[in-house]
Amino acid sequence: MIPILSNIVNLEVANMGRLKTDFYSGGQLGGEDSNTYYAFTGFVRHDRGPIDTGLPTKGVQFRANIKKKFDKGSFTVHGQFINDKAQFYLPIPLSGGSRERLAGNDGEAVEQLLTGELANTSFLTPKWYLQQSNCRWCFYNWWISFS
């Protein structure tokens, strides 16, 4: 019997230069008697977004795990890598349907309402921690679980 594998690839093409590919591959590693399984998934994307900010949405995310099943439980190694820049427009006040920036009290266009002090903010993730790296926009972590 051949080990069962599953592979899926989705491609999305849209206006504003949007191109996104999602993928998944998973299945049994080794022969038919193997109790070891893998999963690898992620996406690659790029688009200019609805507002010309000079910062296009672009990036990648990869997640993977290998799981070994035993008679009384399992052992799993998980990992992920994220290098993703996405446009988020909140809170930037815009004028109705034109999406023009509003003028502030000084007459200049309001660029943002957030403070620069938030640049170095970090937080705990659902899987214990935020891993800082030399890559300015990268986030990665690894964890192990037992059951």
What is the straight-line distance between the termini?
Answer: 28 Å
Number of strands: 8
Number of helices: 0
Portion in helices: under 10%
Enumerate the spans where pLDDT stays under 50 for 5 or more consecutive residues.
128-135
β content, as a range? over 45%
Backbone CA Rg: 21 Å
Element-by-element helix/strand order: EEEEEEEE
Based on helices, strands and strand pairing, what is the structural class?
mainly beta
* General shape: elongated
Main sheet overview: 6 strands, antiparallel
- Compute the average pLDDT: 76
Write the layout of secondary structure elements.
Elements: E1 5-14, E2 18-29, E3 36-47, E4 57-70, E5 73-85, E6 94-95, E7 100-101, E8 138-146
Antiparallel strand pairs: 1-2, 2-3, 3-4, 4-5, 5-8, 6-7
What does this structure look like?
The chain has 147 residues and is mostly beta strands. The chain contains no helices and 8 strands. It has a 6-stranded antiparallel β-sheet, with no helix packed on it. The two termini are 28 Å apart.
Main features:
147 residues, 6-stranded antiparallel beta sheet, two-stranded antiparallel sheet, elongated
